[in-house]
Amino acid sequence: MTEATSATDLVIDETSEDVAVAPPRPVERSRAADGPAARKEARTAEIIVVTSGKGGVGKTTTSASLACGLARRGKRVAVIDFDIGLRNLDLVMGCERRVVYDFVNVINGDCTLKQALIKDKRIDTLFVLAASQTRDKDALSAEGVRRVLDDLSADGFDYIICDSPAGIEKGAHLAMYYADRAVVVVNPEVSSVRDSDRILGLLASKTERAEKGGKGIIEHLLLTRYSPRRVATGEMMSVGDVKEILGLDVVGVIPESPDVLTASNAGTPVILNAESDVARAYDDAVTRLLGESVPLRFIEEPKKGLFARMFGG
Ligand SMILES: Nc1ncnc2c1ncn2[C@@H]1O[C@H](COP(=O)(O)OP(=O)(O)O)[C@@H](O)[C@H]1O
Ligand SMILES: [Mg+2]
To answer: CB 3.0-4.6 Å disulfide test: which of 155, 161, 194, 258 passes with 79?
Structure first.
């Protein structure tokens, strides 16, 4: 552990858009990965999986914003795309042109972790590990994932955010396997809530913490694409309904907003848009993740002004 460099020292600082492709070098492994005892000591980073039952609910959007929000508060954060074959975290983070090596390359020893981590250009303590474009769904192994997480931890990261693929396939299983916490992303509709229930079952049984017994994973609910207007008309389920069905603590309620698409098209995590309620809602979620309680916002329909009430609108 004494040899561990800091996360910032670890990474090649790329200031130009054009990244030279470095020749593969033998993998340097930190001492922390050498034995179970050392490993246990080394795992100081908190591993948070962002997961869901259904696809397309907002996991990648959430992973990017939570990672940014934590890093903006001075935490060292690595965010990893586990969606093999379908990488898009790099797009949402705006670093797709700087991807040279990916998660699978690190696991296979084609490059070092240091070569694959992409340092964010906006926040010094934020790093992205992109997913591979390979079609081979078996490219991730439990042992490989563990080694990368242990090495990140030994290198001084405070948080590792694992952006999970949807459902119950291998990538989703590996994304949650070593987690300390889970953020279960749900949309306020029946199918999304029902599929989350399956994921909660897996979190409670198919993770390292569950298998070892003792302290289980801390689970949080993050409700996104929430539209107070559609809740009022009965088209969507309310925060209270979802919370009651899933029995989880609510870490955030994120409003439905076109700001999300604008942000992902620009490669800027939406939490960085100071004008957006989505950013405020994600920032509140970060505050709650850090253990502080703040009231939920944006869950009521805004009151209409007199003019709108008289003339419609
Ligand atoms: N709060 C939101 N408001 C509007 N659209 C959203 C919101 N969150 C996510 N989306 C959109 O939903 C789609 C899926 O989001 P994404 O984060 O890629 O989900 P996943 O990673 O779960 O597949 C994207 O088109 C994204 O722009
Ligand atoms: Mg995704």
So the answer is: 161
